[in-house]
Design goal:
single chain; about 290 residues; alpha/beta; Rossmann fold; 2 domains; binds S-adenosylmethionine
Length: about 290
């Protein structure tokens, strides 16, 4: 790594050699191997701009120098900021609302089935949870169905992502007031508290007693052996597989199938589909599949 190499207008500035086609190929192979994210030829500019300011700040002279640094790393930590930079974290509360309407119709049936079997645990996974809006929307939905039930239900919610930065945001549960607009007012009242954020801006934070219901973990969906001991009632993996190629999607979908309880559901994003993949799910509704 170089130190800052030139001074312009009183500010120290590193000279960063431009990203070559060869560099881009090396990076995209590395990113694919490590995260399953497949960057096509049109993504060169995206890679260049997403990395540029950080590489300058950290004093690299070229993208290749940064690539060599990651390749030499033995700890597995050096790749994390790269994956943070290139992953797209767009999300929102109650995004793709029909998934939540569907849940409102099936959760009472799931509860009835569980009561017959004296099973009082729900296990839910938000895979690729980004900044947490998805899993908190699921939490509010589940609470609405379980709140007055006796005996008490055991709600186990897992939220995972490859990006450590975004997971930190998710577990903090602190959002701009505007982002919370999509949450019904009675839920806002119940689950959020007002708080002053950076620069005295008014923000909304999920109350700690609700945040603690969710377990946030860094987990790479490309991991060969998934370490989960228990099967899930449903899995949300929305707007994540869109970045993976078909063979990678197929492997992941078959892992989800194994990880779901019989009759459990897999929810995928609205621009995604299992069409053309070899899989064992039953089609329930567009973007909703049942084991
Ligand atoms: C566009 S967001 C989707 C957020 C949310 N599921 C939704 O639909 O609103 C995609 C998320 O997938 C995560 N991601 C991408 N590749 C991943 C991988 N290999 N393992 C785990 N998470 C990954 C990204 O970090 C990002 O937060």
């Amino acid at each position: 790594m170089s130190l800052f190499s030139s001074a312009t207008g009183g500010h120290l500035k590193a000279e960063l050699k431009d990203l070559t086609d060869e560099d881009f190929d090396l990076f995209r192979r590395l990113i694919y191997e490590q995260s399953g994210i497949s960057l096509n030829d049109t993504k060169k500019e995206l890679l260049r701009t997403r990395l540029r300011s950080r590489l300058i700040r950290e004093g690299y002279r070229s993208y290749r120098e940064y690539y060599s640094f990651i390749k030499k790393d033995q700890t597995g930590n050096a790749i994390v900021p790269l994956l943070d930079d290139i992953s797209t974290n767009l999300t929102s509360f109650f995004r793709e609302i029909n998934h939540f309407s569907f849940l409102d119709t099936v959760i009472p049936k799931m509860i009835a089935e569980k009561e017959k079997k004296r099973d009082s645990t729900f296990r839910i996974w938000s895979a690729g949870c980004s900044s947490g809006e998805e899993v908190y929307s699921l939490l509010f939905t589940m609470q609405a169905h379980l709140k007055n039930k006796k005996p008490e239900w055991n709600l186990k919610m897992l939220a995972t992502d490859i990006s450590t930065d975004i997971l930190q945001k998710a577990s903090n549960g602190l959002y701009d007031v505007k982002r919370v607009d999509a949450v019904p007012p009675y839920m806002v009242k119940k689950y959020f508290v007002k708080e002053l954020g950076p620069k005295g801006r008014e923000m909304m934070r999920i109350k700690p007693e609700y945040r603690q219901i969710v377990t946030f973990r860094r987990f790479n969906l490309m991991t060969e052996n998934f370490p989960f001991k228990h099967q899930f009632d449903y899995i949300f993996c929305r707007n994540v597989m869109i970045y993976f190629d078909k063979p990678t999607q197929e492997v992941l979908v078959s892992k989800y199938h194994k990880l779901l309880k019989p009759n459990g559901y897999l929810f995928i994003g609205h621009s995604e589909s299992l069409t053309g993949l070899n899989h064992s799910f039953r089609y329930a509704q567009p973007t909703i599949y049942q084991k």
